[in-house]
Design goal:
By secondary structure, the protein is α/β, with parallel strands linked by helices. The chain folds into two domains: 23-244, Alpha-Beta Barrel (TIM Barrel), CATH 3.20.20; 251-339, Immunoglobulin-like (Sandwich). The chain has helices at 2-21, 46-58, 66-75, 93-106, 127-135, 155-177, 193-201, 236-243; strands at 25-31, 33-34, 43-44, 62-64, 83-90, 111-114, 139-142, 183-185, 206-208, 214-216, 227-228, 246-247, 250-254, 266-271, 282-285, 288-290, 294-298, 301-307, 316-324, 331-339. The strands form five sheets. Strands 1, 4, 5, 6, 7, 10 and 11 form a seven-stranded mixed β-sheet that branches. Strands 12-20-19-15-16 form a five-stranded mixed β-sheet, with no helix packed on it. Strand 6 (111-114), helix 5 and strand 7 form a beta-alpha-beta unit. Helix 2 packs parallel to helix 4 (93-106). The longest helix has 23 residues, at 155-177. The termini are far apart.
Length: 345
C-alpha cells in the first residue's frame, strides 16, 4: 500500500508539472497613442482604453510587464490563471498625459518601448518623465535610436547599421537611466533572423515584432507576437476576443524570413499534432478570409500550406491561421509577417 501511495503521489506531481509546463499562454497587446484623434490609425480613444482596463479588473486579470512574463517563461514557471501584458510603442506624450493616469487608476503596469532619438522632442516624452514612470513601476524597453527601416538595407549593411544603432541607444539609456533595457521592440515591427542573433549576442532577453498572436511556451523570445490595439483594432470587443486566444503551436515555419521572391509567397507550417482541429482552420490575408491551399495529416505530422490568391502589394502583409482546439473549447492563433522593402512606408 505504501508503495502504491508513493507511486500515486509521483503520478499526481508529474501531472501537475506537465500541466504547468503547458499553461504558458499570455496575450500581449500593443498600443501607441492615447486619446489623440489626430492619428486615428494608431490611436485608442480613452473611453475604450478605460473600458479595457475595467474589463481586466472586473474579471480578475493579472497584468504583468513583458519582463516579468519573460522571466517566468525562461524559468519554466506557470502564469496566473488569467494574465495579460500591455505594451506601448514610441513614447508619445499622450501616454504620459492620458494613458498612464488610467493605468495608475486601476493599479496596472505596462512596458513602454522608446526610441532614444526622439525623447524630449515635439509630442514625445522626455527623460525626467521616463524616470518618473520607471520609478512608479512602468518597464522601459529599447525601441532603437533612429527608428530606421533596417530591412531596406542588404544583409551586410543592415548588420553594421543595426549594431551602431543598438550601441547609440544603449549609450543614451545608460547616461539617463543608469542601465540599459533587456527588452527590444523592432522599429515598425520588422525583423530578420540575423537581427535576432545580434540581439541575443548583445544580451537582450526578448524582443517584440509586428505580427499578431499569443506569447507561449514555444515562442521565439526574439520574435514575440502582439495584438495591435489602435485604429479599427482598438475596441473593447476586439480586446475581449483576443484575450482568450491561445497560441497555435507551430514547430516549423518555412520560410522563416519575412522576405519573399515569388509573389504571392507560400508559407509552409508544421503544426503540433493533437491540439487543434485543422478541419475547421481559417486562413486570413491581412484580415481577408482566404482558402487554405493544402492541409496534410500524415501520422504525427500536420502540415498546412498557405498562399494568398493575389500578389502582395503592401510593404507589410500578415498571413494568419486560426483553428479551434481539438476539444472545441478555445481558438488558437498564429501569424507570419511578409515584408517587401521595395514598397515605401
Amino acid at each position: 500500500m505504501r508503495t502504491f501511495i508513493i507511486l500515486l503521489s509521483f503520478i499526481l506531481l508529474s501531472s501537475t508539472v506537465a500541466l504547468e509546463a503547458q499553461s504558458f499562454d499570455i496575450p500581449v497587446f500593443a498600443y501607441h497613442r492615447f486619446g489623440d484623434s489626430r492619428y486615428p490609425s494608431t490611436n485608442i480613444p480613452l473611453s475604450v482604453f478605460e473600458s479595457q482596463l475595467q474589463y481586466l479588473a472586473d474579471n480578475h486579470y493579472t497584468v504583468l510587464t513583458l519582463g516579468e512574463a519573460v522571466a517566468k517563461w525562461k524559468a519554466g514557471k506557470a502564469l496566473p490563471d488569467k494574465a495579460a501584458i500591455l505594451t506601448i510603442d514610441d513614447g508619445y506624450l499622450s501616454f504620459y498625459e492620458n494613458g498612464w493616469p488610467l493605468l495608475k487608476k486601476y493599479g496596472f503596469s505596462a512596458t513602454i518601448f522608446v526610441q532614444t532619438g526622439t525623447i524630449g522632442g515635439n509630442d514625445f516624452i522626455n527623460w525626467p518623465q521616463i524616470k518618473e514612470m520607471q520609478k512608479a513601476g512602468i518597464e522601459i524597453g529599447n525601441h532603437s535610436h533612429d527608428h530606421s527601416q533596417f530591412l531596406n538595407l542588404d544583409e551586410t549593411e543592415r548588420s553594421a547599421v543595426f549594431l551602431r544603432d543598438l550601441a547609440e541607444a544603449s549609450d543614451h539609456f545608460q547616461e539617463h537611466l543608469g542601465s540599459t533595457p533587456a527588452l527590444y521592440c523592432y522599429p515598425y515591427g520588422e525583423w530578420t533572423p540575423d537581427m535576432e542573433q545580434m540581439l541575443r549576442a548583445a544580451g537582450f532577453a526578448a524582443a517584440t515584432v509586428q505580427k499578431s498572436g499569443v506569447f507561449s511556451q514555444s515562442s521565439d523570445a526574439m520574435a514575440i507576437p502582439r495584438f495591435p490595439m489602435g485604429g479599427p483594432f482598438g475596441t473593447l470587443q476586439g480586446f475581449k476576443n483576443k484575450i482568450v486566444m491561445k497560441a497555435l503551436e507551430v514547430t516549423e515555419a518555412s520560410p522563416a524570413s519575412p522576405f519573399f521572391s515569388d509573389n504571392p509567397p507560400t508559407l509552409r507550417l508544421t503544426i503540433k499534432p493533437g491540439e487543434v482541429n485543422l478541419k475547421n482552420a481559417q486562413f486570413f490575408v491581412d484580415g481577408t478570409k482566404t482558402e487554405i491551399k493544402k492541409i496534410t495529416a500524415d501520422g504525427d505530422q500536420q502540415i498546412v500550406v498557405l498562399q494568398a490568391v493575389k500578389k502582395l502589394t503592401q510593404r507589410r502583409t500578415l498571413y494568419t491561421l486560426t483553428a479551434p482546439s481539438a476539444t472545441g473549447n478555445s481558438w488558437h492563433w498564429y501569424s507570419h509577417l511578409w515584408v517587401n522593402p521595395k514598397v515605401a512606408e
